[in-house]
Amino acid sequence: MFLHNTKMMYTVRVDQPDPAFAKLLLEQFGGPNGELAAAMRYFLQGWNEPDGRRRSMLLDIATEELSHLEMVAQTLTLLLRGSPSELVDQVEGTYLGELLDGKMPDSAALALGSGANVLGGGGARLTDSQGAPFTAAYIDTIGEPTADLRSDIAAEARAKLVYERLIKLTDDNGAKDTLNFLMTREIAHQKMFEAALAAIEPNFPPGTLPGNEKLGHAYIADSGDFGESGKNGAGNAEGFNLAEANSSWRFILDDKPTQHASEQEVL
């Protein structure tokens, strides 16, 4: 059961119309790192999650993401409302400017049917900032909690960065305040998912099969200057040194990968 509270989660305001920025903000409405993709990802994981605590967290966050989607839609509407035609024309040309001002016949049908109108006739539309339609391909759930939680952490990090970049692209203090709220909630969600992952012991490697012990600890230095001996040249172990110095996982350097290559030829 879903109930819709007509109160916004956070007060949304903009200081002035800005259709160019509205087009960029569509990224967080219908884009791969946007609020709809996040909500669908976490709902799907939550509905399939047998653990009660993780299911509760996933559904809480998924529902909050829908509130964020509503906030982004409201921001888009405010950025477009009352926009002078000359401002809109800077984004999409005279056609869109006249469409948003209601000067074209059958404007509603044109707004829904025109691929050129990425602003959806004066409001939110399920596309990213480039007009690419929303797709279920954005939902990268695989059905294993430790893998999905790591993906969720990365998804929240990406969303945080998109909001951060959007904040830097506008001078509108009202829009900045709204986006700062949304950006900060991405940080909170990231830490929630980290806590959920830490509660699973052991949580690595994902799945049930442990893999080959030797291969699992091998660091194969296969990008570098290989001489006649087949050994990676001096100074090409930086990646190994980075991994070895910053992980409790014990790595073994393999700097002669060509010596144990398969004899099978590429077809």
Assign an overall shape.
elongated
Strand content: under 5%
Uncertain regions spanning at least 5 consecutive residues: 92-96, 104-119
Order of helices and strands: HHHHHHHHHHEHE
| Radius of gyration over C-alpha positions, nearest whole angstrom | 24 Å
Share of helical residues? 40-55%
Number of strands: 2
The number of helices is 11
Going across the biggest sheet, name each strand in turn.
Answer: 1-2
Number of individual domains: 2
Distance between termini? 56 Å
Q: What's the pLDDT, averaged over the residues?
A: 85
What is the architecture of the largest domain at the second tier of CATH?
Answer: Up-down Bundle
CATH structural class of the largest domain: Mainly Alpha
Task: Write out the CATH superfamily name of the largest domain.
Answer: Ferritin, core subunit, four-helix bundle
> Helices and strands: which structural class?
mainly alpha
| CATH overall fold name of the largest domain | Ferritin
Largest sheet: 2 strands, parallel
Overall description:
Helices cover 52% and strands 2% of the residues. The chain has 267 residues and is mainly alpha-helical. The protein folds into 2 domains: 19-199, Ferritin, core subunit, four-helix bundle (Ferritin, Up-down Bundle), CATH 1.20.1260.10; 213-260, no CATH class. The longest helix is centred in the first third of the chain and has 29 residues, at 52-80.
